Amino acid sequence: MSAGEPGLPGLAGPGRASTGAASTGAASTGAASTGAASTGAASTGAASGGKVEIYDTTLRDGSQQVGLDLTVADKLHVAVALDALGVDVVEGGWPGSNPKDAEFFARAADLPWRHAKLAAFGATRPPRRSTDDDPNLLALLAARTPIVTLVGKAWTLHVDEALRTTREENLAMVAESVRFMAAEGRRVVFDAEHFFDGYRADRGYALAVLAAAAEAGADTLALCDTNGGTLPDEAARILAEVDAVTRARIGVHFHNDSACAVANSVVAVAGGALHVQGAANGYGERCGNADLFSVIASLELKRGHELLPPGRLAALASTARTIADLANLPLASRQPYVGSSAFTTKAGLHASAIARRPDAYSHVDPGLVGNEARVLVSELAGRSNVLAKAAELGLDLSGDPALASTILDQIKDAEHRGYAFEAADASFELLVRRTAGVLPAWFELEGYRVVIERAAAEDRSEAIVRLLLGEHRVVAVGEGVGPVHALDQALRRGLAELYPALASIALVDYKVRILDGRAAASAVTRVMLTSADHDGEWTTVGVSDDIVTASWEALADGIVYGLLRAGAAPLASPELTASGAPV
Ligand SMILES: [Zn+2]
């Protein structure tokens, strides 16, 4: 059967308001409470404006990403980070699907929630079953969250082929499951799965599914683009058509398979959606979910929405990095708003113009999202570029043309030998500071030795590093899976006692490139090494005809730069050079 056309009672009539009242009334008896604000906002209808609710699904849908595996402890940390940022809802997982999520909900109750409400996710009851003894629904109740998000089928193809039940039975599954949760005092968000595909295939049935959920007491109807194929103009059109026939709060949930998840979300809010689902850093299966951070930044900075508590937008970049750290995935440097390259300009001829008018070269002030503008240095760039870059580092070279020329000559010479400062901003800064005589010393290298051993099909390296720390001579030994790892371990061990800040600095990336392929084994090797602390990452470069020497140079510079960032107290004698590397 193809159920109904627009104008069904639950969508067009006053049914929305009355079901809202019912779920509020039930709240007093339930373990959980429904926010009064939610029913208030819903009853005003989507098109009449109001606060847009930010609903994060990193811990459920985002965790479907290949390679993203969060422990319960990780999930709790992510939840705390999202709450501190100020999202409205944190969807914690699917308690009926696995014990890990059930444990998360048991422990999440003890978190010091400041702003966000917790949601548990689950499916409507199976065909031909009762709601009362459905273990999935009971697990949702046991999670004791104020919000329960129920997903139901909105596409006839899925009702026919995936559920293999009748369309009437699917409507009953939606209505009974929503009613069951609302009667228990939960605020119910209904996720209409494959809504946009369903709407294209059978508009009447897709709307009937929404009507069934709204009549049964769903507070928010989230239109899901589960396959992620919808484009912005179509998203806007369908949302407007749904909005015209419903008084419920409309939400959206977009996947990024057409690279439009953020655009669709922004367009949907412009069209009246009052609830946006997405995931931190756009995590999610296939091409990911809508990147919630880009959605928030675009709507706050360009559409005047107040989505996060006052002042919290400036925590966006650090939150993105924190969650990437917890997910053990590198934060994409090109990620809009929060990536390390999001406001980085490869200067060329207009470096001085960038220094004069940074606002002319970025779409928003990077400081508003906690990021910063950077200017890249390259061989092509001239004097003004170097001066601009130095000024960015707080070094004014304009009054010392001789020093500026010396630095420029050194850069040109180094780049000729294979150094690439464009991507190694930290090495550039160290070069400028060394040449200008304003780089303190934290250690001096006396020498190192590396032994590479292959035993029982296992590579093992041992490094001995001899350091001078002022008066003291330190000999440290490190073991690792390769020579560079062993050197890193030895260097850290030698410095650990004097510089505890090193404990929070980690190596995150190591790239080797042979610069002259023709010379084969004797070719020049360039090593790019990225280190990170909690506040960000930096890249250093080393060049040599020996890969271990090149690695050591990048490694030592990475440590020196980390100590500089951390404000570690240097040794007394400033004339020591940190890595002994050529500049
Ligand atoms: Zn999804």
Task: Give a written overview of the molecule.
- The protein has 583 residues and is of the alpha/beta class.
- 39% of the residues lie in helices and 19% in strands.
- It has helices spanning 9-12, 15-27, 36-43, 72-85, 99-108, 135-142, 156-163, 167-183, 195-201, 203-215, 232-244, 261-270, 292-303, 316-327, 351-356, 383-392, 401-417, 425-436, 483-495, 547-566; strands at 53-56, 89-93, 117-123, 147-153, 187-193, 220-225, 249-254, 275-278, 344-346, 374-376, 444-455, 458-469, 472-480, 506-514, 525-533, 536-544.
- The strands form 4 sheets. Strands 1-2-3-4-5-6-7-8 form an 8-stranded parallel barrel, surrounded by 11 helices. The chain has a 3-stranded antiparallel sheet with strand order 11-12-13. Strands 14-15-16 form a 3-stranded antiparallel sheet.
- The longest helix has 20 residues, at 547-566.
- The termini are far apart.
- It binds zinc ion (ZN).
**Main sheet: strands, sense, barrel:** 8 strands, parallel, barrel
Ions and ligands? zinc ion
Proportion of helical residues: 25-40%
Q: How large a portion of the residues is in β-strands, by DSSP E?
A: 15-25%
Determine Rg (CA atoms, Å).
Answer: 29 Å
Widest beta sheet: strand line-up: 1-2-3-4-5-6-7-8
Shape: elongated
Provide the residue-averaged pLDDT. Answer: 86
Number of strands: 16
Distance between the termini: 77 Å
Low confidence ranges: 1-10, 12-48, 574-583
Structure classification: alpha/beta
